[in-house]
Design brief:
Blueprint (H helix, E strand, L loop, with lengths): L3 E7 L5 H11 L6 E7 L5 H19 L5 E5 L2 E2 L5 E7 L6 E5 L2 E6 L2 E6 L11 H18 L7 E9 L4 E2 L2 E2 H13 L10 E7 L4 E10 L3 E5 L34 E6 L2 E9 L2 E2 L2 E2 L5 H15 L11 E11 L5 H11 L5 E5 L9 E10 L6
Parallel strand pairs: 2-3, 9-12, 19-20
Antiparallel strand pairs: 1-5, 2-5, 4-20, 6-7, 7-8, 8-13, 9-13, 10-11, 14-15, 15-16, 16-21, 17-18, 19-21
Helix pairs in contact: 1-2, 3-4
Amino acid sequence: MILRNYTVYHTEEKPFEQMCQSLLTQMDALPKVIKIVFFGPAQNNREYLLQLQLIRKCARAHFREQVPLISYVSQKPLKGMLNAEVTTLSQESVANISYGNGYIVLENSGCRELITEGILPPDINASHKEQSNQVFAQLEEILLGENLPVSSIIRQWNYIENISSFENDYQNYQAFNDARSHFYAKADWSLGYPAATGIGTQAGGVMVELIAIAGTGLINRALDNPLQIAAHKYSQGVLLGALDPCTQQRTTPKFERARIIGLPELQTAYISGTAAIRGESSLISKDVIEQTQITMQNIDHLISAGNYPVQGALREFKLLRIYVKNPKQMEEVRDYMKVNYPDISKLYICADICREELLIEIEGIAEIFLPAIPN
């Protein structure tokens, strides 16, 4: 198992390139940085591409030889105009790191792990269906090039510009789900789908990041939540837009509520984007704190000992990423989370969510571990 840590950085509002440099400088004291996800204010696709180019330029100048994976998400953070979520490695858990075009491969004696940066299509102004198919074609090429099957994907982040909008009769999120379903149809998912988040952005087209894992002796299992119907089992009534012409229905979002990876004594829970949904129905409430409470109840129960029993294990959140639809409600959510979930690294960002009535979505990474026995 390959261990890592997560840190969130903010910076004061300055010209964009100076904000990039300020964030990168804050990372100097960290151990091996392997991935940086920037969250910023791009208002349209032209501005997004220019800002992404500046981020990459600054990262190359700062890191020189081994530049970390870079993603840029057009979502405005609560604090400042540009934030960075940084992934670092626990050095002793990795024997080898190799760098590919847009991805890295981490290896140790029992595990081989592929991590991508944000993979974009050639044209972020094409239709969402075209963009999604092009991104999945690139991801398939990366996986096959590293001799990893599509079914080795265990975590996926799906960033979708104007996620709940329509192009003709096709909802953008549903167009993405159709493309994902066709891509996944090439693989055997008998052990469950990846954990995933599908979230809206202001600009940037369709972008996907993923983690894929192969190993011996690893726990690698999907985790259901009895409070919620699995997303891949949703009925047609909660899906929107035109029918997929190949299947003559709206394909379901292919992800699990969480995925557990690790060893008996230490496991990582990748928690999918979670909202105030019970069964398959949204909580119809305009109270963002009520939706936050229900969302965190869903997450807490998902990784609880009652739902995933591990004898004597402790559970600890490493990171929560909190998407709030209305920017005016972000501070209210932050205040609630600060009181009820203190001492957890959190990132607050403004983002559209795939259902109109949902005001908040939360994803996370948690560790489930057995405490060390003193000598």
